[in-house]
Structure formats: structure tokens, C-alpha cells
Amino acid sequence: MNWNxxxxxxxxxxxxxxxxxxxxxxxxxxxxxxxxxxxxxVDRLDNVLVHKxxxxxxxxxxxxxxxxxxxxxxxxxxxxxxxxxxxxxGGVNASAVIGRQVQVGKDHINGVIGCKPxxxxxxxxxxxxxxxxxxxxxxxxxxxxxxxKLVQPGDIIYFCENAQDFGDGSFVSKAxxxxxxxxxxxxxxxxxxxxxxxxxxVVQEEVGLRGSGVAARTLDPDxxxxxxxxxxxxxxxxxxxxxxxELGKGAVISLIxxxxxxxxxxxxLGVSLCERGGIRWQTKSKIAxxxxxxxxxxxxxxxxxxxxxxxxxYLHAPCSVIRKSDxxxxxxxxxxxxxxLQETAL
Length: 346
Description:
Blueprint: H1 3-11, H2 20-31, E1 40-42, E2 48-52, E3 62-67, E4 72-78, E5 84-89, E6 101-104, E7 109-114, H3 123-127, E8 136-138, H4 144-148, E9 156-159, E10 164-166, E11 170-173, H5 176-190, E12 197-202, H6 210-219, E13 223-231, E14 251-253, H7 264-277, E15 281-282, H8 293-296, E16 304-312, E17 320-323, H9 324-343
Parallel strand pairs: 3-12, 3-13, 13-16, 14-15
Antiparallel strand pairs: 1-2, 2-12, 4-5, 4-9, 6-7, 6-9, 7-8, 10-11, 11-17, 14-16
Helix pairs in contact: 1-5, 5-9, 7-9
């Protein structure tokens, strides 16, 4: 795993429909490679589609996919005192953002997410979880007129860049979901592949899996493998199946989630590759979450789908945490799949 590149990718700001910085980075990296001009295309939604020639023609059309967008907040209105009202772009827990420093708009203006002070809350209100509608963003201005010189409705509020090594073998950052998957795809494209393969860096996953279905209809894959980050709830107050998956136990190969029933033969192949290759793996212990596989599976003529995910604590929060060893297990499995998907009868 190229950790410097993952840090760079996570530091970019690109929410659903505003993935341009991520797209431009990926396109710049692709231009450094000896790819034919027609091997890279950007479609009408801004999906980046890449066809990479391998040593041999593909026996099956395989699409490797990851999404470029991250969750964020969007400015919806400005209060008379200059503070910003906002709503979610993707699923964000209100309690995770209170008191956080953020960056607002194209100029990345410093801001802080605020809420009503506890001494002004009723006893009943104190017992309830925070709601996004009760929060505001303070950028240090004192009037609506002053704020509107700097920020407009529709501007994006991003979590601050914070990618860094963390603790004993961990990595912390915003936007690991799914810049991790983008880093895996770039690593595969840069390598000498044994077979031809298609790659899709897709948009708008966080608001309804919108880009991946369009990409799948264009590429028409027989098989699609989605690289993702998935919820690890291995926390002190969770036990049993509620933990979903755990940091330090390897790549997550999904059987089922809230959107997709995964192809059992592909799941079995992934498990077999891990067992033979000494790659640690786990599966989710609870039906939770979802990803682009749900849209790819039934796009066009349909595709057989598989998801390989890095377990991630505090998903969709300003700071998410993964284990480096789990990420490297995912990458090892990714490289194994390039050959195995072509050479195995499925």
C-alpha cells in the first residue's frame, strides 16, 4: 500500500457531485502511465473509466470499482448573525461533528460546528441525540451580509485534512471511505497485469450509488469487484454480531449487506485465495451498510459482484481509523483476484 498516496487522496476535498479534485488527481496520475489515449474516458457524470491491457486478453470482462466521493455538509442558508445552516451530503451523524473544525467553500475558510449550549437545553432535550437541524457553522463573521461575501448556499463544508499514522500500526484520516479503494485501483493500474481489466473510479456513491450504475452499463462487466471501507464496531460497548467486523483481523469479504446479496462463488474464491496465500480475512457478522455493488449488480444485463473492504472505525466521521495490516491484506487479495477471476471456473 502506497501510504503517501493514500494520505494525499484523503486530503483532497470531493463530496458527491463535487469530486473534481479527486478526479483531476487520478487523471494526472494516469497520464504518467504508458496508456493509449483511448484507454481513459470521463463520462457525463464524471466517472473515470480505464481499460488496462494485460499480458493476455481477458476471458471474462472484469470491472474493479471504487468511489471518489466523501461525505460532507452543504450550506443551505445564512442566519442574520452570519452563522451557516447546513444539511448532509451522505450519511453523517450529527453528534460526530459538534465542535469540529471544518473548512468551508472553495477558499477553505476555517469554521467550527456549533450547537445550543447545554445550559440552554431542557432536561428532555439533553436526553435526546443531537439533530443536524439544530447545528450551525460559525466562520467568525457577525452578520449575514459579511458572511455572504465569503460563502454562498450550495458551498460545501468539509472535515479538515488530518491524514496521519496513528498509534501502533494504524492510520487516521477523513475520507478513508473510499479514497482507500481509489488507492487500490491506482496500484493495480500501475502494475503489469496478467490479463486485461477495466477500472471505474465512480461518483456519487454516498447519495445513492448513482455513478456506479452508469459505469456498469457502459463497461457491461461479467464480474465486478468493489473495493471499499466498511463499518467496524469493535468498540468497548459492543459484542457478538454487533461488532460487524474488527480492526486487525484482515480484509472483509462480504456475504450480504443492506443492499446486496453477493455472489457465493466469488465469495468462496476470495476466501480460498486468502487461505492459500496467507492473507487474513473476515466477513461481516451483521447485515449492515451497502456500497456500489448494489447498483452494479442489476445495471444493464447484470453482473456478478464481490466486495473487498478494509474494516474502518468511525466511518463517515471527521476522523476514521484503519489498521495498516488490514489495508495491505486487501491489496494482496486484489492482486490475487486479477488472475484468479480469469483462470477459475465460476
